[in-house]
Amino acid sequence: MQRIRLRYTKRGRLRFTSHRDFQRAFERALRRAEVPMAYSAGFTPHPKVSYANAAPTGTGSEAEYLEIALTEHRDPATLRELLDESLPAGLDITDAVEARTSGLADRLTASVWELRLEGVAVDDAQKAVETFLAAETVEVQRRTKNGMRTFDTRGAVVELQALPQADRPVDKPCAILRLVVRHLTPAVRPDDVLSGLRAVADLAPPVPAAVTRLAQGLFDEESGTVTDPLAPDREAAPAAPPKAAGTTSATAPEGPAA
Tell me, what's the pLDDT at 242? Predict the structure, then answer.
């Protein structure tokens, strides 16, 4: 059985698709691309697809990950092209590698988010960010399947910056927040951080923020960056065998005509 790990996106209007909607679309793409999927056992077999830490409905993403199991060997690059052609524009397969290591989900420990705040001046956003970062704890409430829950958002935030929107007219302010957040339990989402900014600094954008996940992976404590979770699989790939010295593809010259 071969395992392939894929990176995919949710762009444009398709950021409003739920995780279940994507699952249905992806399984249709597998059938269209005639991927030799492995299936689970039991009375209702289903394709062996493992999804990892899907983004919330309504948020865009450049870094979603999943893993599929195949019954026949396939070239990852060719498989990526076939699946990408079989999915609607906006749900794009951007990378594919053969799984050569274990624990993909264990390498998704942090995310980099971009929050676009229309109608918010950069100076106002910067003051709110400074107030948020200066607080020891910033508690917010969110309704979960087990009822209303209160939790701290400040402890999960590694980095939070307010940046200007390039080439933006003065009369149409727009602040960009760059957020790096650890994946804790319970998970702290970008909308939770916005709730925290509203609670401690009264920052309330006039329209809902446009949120996009830019990266997802292992958080490197030394560099403060989020690393590519597929890099270990690429590094574990066997190197191509070297050509034997002195070999040539030239044919022997023909002898003289009789």
Answer: 62
What six digits make up the tokens of 156? 């999960």
Angstrom distance (rounded) from CA 6 to CA 202: 40
Q: What is the pLDDT of residues 84-128, one digit of tens each?
A: 999 999 999 999 999 999 989 999 999 999 999 999 999 999 999
Look at residue 189 and give its three-state secondary structure: coil
Query: Residue 74 corresponds to which tokens in the numbers above?
Result: 């396939």
- Which candidate, 114, 135, 247, 130, places its Cα nearest to that of 190? 114
| CB hemisphere CA count around 123 (13 angstroms) | 1
pTM given for the model: 0.87
CB 122 within 8 A of CB 163: yes
Q: Are strands 174-182 and 49-52 parallel, antiparallel or unpaired?
A: unpaired
Beta bridge partners of 141: 150
